[in-house]
Amino acid sequence: MKCPYCGHLDNKVIDSRLNKESTITRRRRSCLACNQRFTTYERLEVMMPVLVKKDGRREAWDRQKMVVGLEKACEKRPVSCDDIDAFVDEIEKKLQDLGSKEVSSEVIGEWVMEDLADLDEVAYVRFASVYRQFKDVSEFVDELKTLVDARDTKEA
Questions:
Q1: Order of strands, sheet of 50-52, starting from the edge strand that comes earlier in the sequence
Q2: Are residues 20 and 76 in the same domain?
Q3: What does the pLDDT average to over 85-110?
Q4: Which of 2, 29, 42, 124 lies at a 20 to 30 A Cα distance from 107?
Q5: pLDDT confidence of 23, banded at 50, 70, 90?
Q6: Residue 1's closest CA among 22, 31, 25?
Q7: Facing residues of 16 across strands?
Q8: pLDDT tens figures, 58-81
């Protein structure tokens, strides 16, 4: 692993820890040249299906793209980075469990819509407004009514 401070390639691992789900290994390292410490993360690389976009284009799965989209939806909301990472982990698990070489981006969008309201209702509305591409206020109001009805049903 190349030291981010001096570029030296020799370092030693001081500490290794797994996350709660045992899917990511965090390693604390020390450079043998400059003695600076830095952290690396290891994640198992699995073959993810190719996304088929609405216009027919095919695109490789990009975890970071989903994280950025969710961060925008959750901006200024009480949703932590860990919550977003866990949310994306669940989407990736669904993709892996699907066992398909290709999956429609619409399927993933619906998975996000199904689960995002439980994470944060405001984030759900923000995401829905972009994902559903509302053309007018009445479509937006209809989505809000659906959200309120679903919440009322859960509480009953």
A1: 58-59, 50-52, 102-104
A2: no
A3: 92
A4: 42
A5: confident
A6: 31
A7: 27
A8: 999 999 999 999 999 999 999 999
